[in-house]
Write a structure and sequence with these properties.
Length: about 500
């Protein structure tokens, strides 16, 4: 057993920024981060567009950012939360800069602000088209400098350790030794990110399997708004299953047009904001166009844009296109919508507290009320920064209570068991991804959702038995978690009536 004062599960922007602050505040306390891959692997690392923050109050204002967020959320945002998150942005940006993150500036020394769908102003602070990479680099560097933070990479959190609605830590699999370790902690933070791999076609890296939400669900936390899945309109089209390269929405903010194969700039027919309508509207419009034409993709036309300025702003996108033979000065980029973000998750209050004592959640795995039915572009990094600070402030004033761990709980999994054949997990995973794409995608049908629910329940029962009788492994646990998340999405989609934001259901 390992004891720690703060156990943080996940090493993206949410987990790492909390770790830095709490470690500084309590230099004599132990902070432990467990993370299931390399320490920098996360959705955070792949963020392109940037962070939506009001930095220039001559053109922009908090009120405009608040209104844009509320419009995008289609009436389901928590207004108080929106106000809180938007107005705290500048302070959180200063901290990131103090930790060494660099953001692009204009020749006059102001932030070079990008624009994305749903934003009425240019307000997206960025580091070229690799904002997440820069943030992850800077904060991980800070974390490594703190003597009281231990980072355990390749450690997969299996389940929370709870008793009487209190979180006492977590069970964690050391993926290199296959040892299961019980972590006892005073406070636990779930910062496990998104769910993309449930859909197969996703902009998310392979780590996004919804583990934290599934763990919290098993521990009886409240999980809400799972039906609000955000599909990004412009993932680079290719025929393989797996993570898709993103063509940032900021490219449309820079002036790129969406066209059908025949050259029709179809977004003009759907929304007066055209390519810069919010993401739900653009993805749903592309979906309709593809169904009408039976084409496999639409195209992003950058041929009319200033090439030099484009390369300066989007060097990674330019190079990636070039590497597959697309010269953006002459060729259109083939794009399709792909799963990108989960608006719902573990319900937390304004201090990031879940329904379980001493358990907090932050970042993409949490549901704060900021996004409502659809997240405004570049509000996710902002939400994680603001809420990790909220949790830090709350815990900075919270006294520790000595807890004793029931010894039976720490004897988890000592018996030797057979290993499950990996063909089984691979087959069910592929089936699950197809099921989710077909039945719980951009447009859902009531009958499909019911069929999906039946299949998911069957897999869930099967997995329950398999987990009892076989050796625990990351792939088995991830599969079980993804099935749990699939069930939550499908069941909450069945319950919701009426289309809202990213949720569209037909009878
Ligand atoms: P993550 O950064 O995903 O970190 C989760 C961590 O938890 C990872 O370290 C993971 O390994 C770990 N983990 C998961 N399960 C376990 C487990 N069982 N045990 C141990 N560790 C575990 N948002 C914006 O605001 N602006 C953008 O420009 C932007 N661009 C994006 C571009 C792409 C391609 C993608 C995929 C997302 C983008 N987003 C953007 C969304 C944003 O990046 C994420 O929502 C945000 O970074 C999530 O941060 P997080 O800390 O909550 O989770
Ligand atoms: C993008 O750069 O298009 C992604 C921005 C986001 O998800 O907020």
């Amino acid at each position: 057993m390992i004891t720690t004062n703060y156990l943080i599960i996940g090493s993206g922007v949410a987990g790492l920024t909390f770790a830095i602050k709490i470690a500084d505040r309590f230099p004599d306390k132990k902070v432990t981060i467990v993370t299931k891959s390399n320490a920098d692997e996360s959705n955070t690392k792949y963020a392109q567009g940037g962070i939506a923050i009001v930095t220039d109050e001559t053109e922009d204002s908090y009120q405009k950012h608040i209104e844009d967020t509320l419009i995008c959320g289609d009436g389901l945002c928590n207004v108080e939360v929106v106000k809180m998150v938007v107005t705290e942005g500048p302070k959180r940006l200063k901290e990131l800069i103090a930790w060494g993150a660099k953001f692009d500036k204009t020749a006059k020394g102001n932030f070079d602000l990008g624009k994305e769908g749903g934003h009425s102003q240019n307000r997206v602070v960025h580091h070229k088209d690799q904002t997440g990479h820069e943030i992850e680099r800077a904060i991980l560097d800070q974390v490594h400098q703190k003597g009281n933070i231990t980072v355990l990479d390749h450690h997969f959190a299996l389940d929370l350790l709870t008793e009487d609605n209190q979180c006492l830590g977590a069970f964690v699999l050391n993926q290199k030794t296959n040892e299961i370790i019980t972590f006892q902690s005073d406070f636990t933070l779930l910062a496990t990110g998104g769910i993309g791999h449930l859909y197969g076609h996703t902009t998310n890296p392979i780590i996004a399997t919804g583990d934290g939400i599934a763990m919290a669900f098993r521990a009886n936390a409240t999980i809400k708004d799972m039906e609000f899945i955000q599909f990004h309109p412009t993932a680079l089209y290719d025929t393989s299953i797996g993570s898709k390269f993103l063509i940032s929405e900021a490219v449309r903010g820079f002036g790129a047009y969406l066209r059908t194969k025949n050259g029709n700039r179809f977004m003009l027919d759907y929304d007066s904001r055209a390519e810069l309508a919010s993401r739900d509207i653009v993805s749903q419009s592309i979906d309709l166009e593809l169904k009408k034409s039976d084409d496999k993709c639409v195209y992003l036309d950058c041929t009319h844009l200033d090439l030099e300025a484009f390369i300066k702003h989007f060097p990674m996108i330019y190079e990636r296109c070039k590497s597959i033979g697309i010269d953006i000065a002459k060729d259109w980029i083939p794009v399709v919508p792909a799963q990108h973000y989960l608006c719902g998750g573990i319900t937390v209050d304004k201090n990031g507290k879940t329904a379980i004592d001493n358990l907090f959640a932050c970042g993409e795995c949490s549901r704060t009320g900021l996004h409502g039915a659809n997240r405004l572009a570049s509000n996710s990094l902002l939400e994680a920064l603001v809420y990790s600070d909220k949790i830090y402030n709350y815990l900075a004033d919270t006294a520790f209570e000595k807890k004793d761990l029931n010894p039976i709980l720490s004897n988890w999994e000592l018996v030797e068991k057979p290993k499950i054949n990996s063909d089984y997990t691979a087959t069910v995973k592929t089936g699950l991804q197809l099921l989710m794409r077909q039945n719980a995608g951009i447009v859902r049908y009531e009958t499909d959702l019911h069929k999906a629910k039946e299949q998911l329940m069957q897999w869930q029962d099967e997995l329950e038995t398999i987990l009892k009788n076989n050796q625990i492994s990351t792939e088995l646990y991830e599969l079980n978690n993804m099935i749990t998340i699939g069930n939550l999405i499908v069941q909450q989609s069945i319950i919701r009536n009426g289309n809202k934001g990213s949720f569209k259901k037909n009878n």
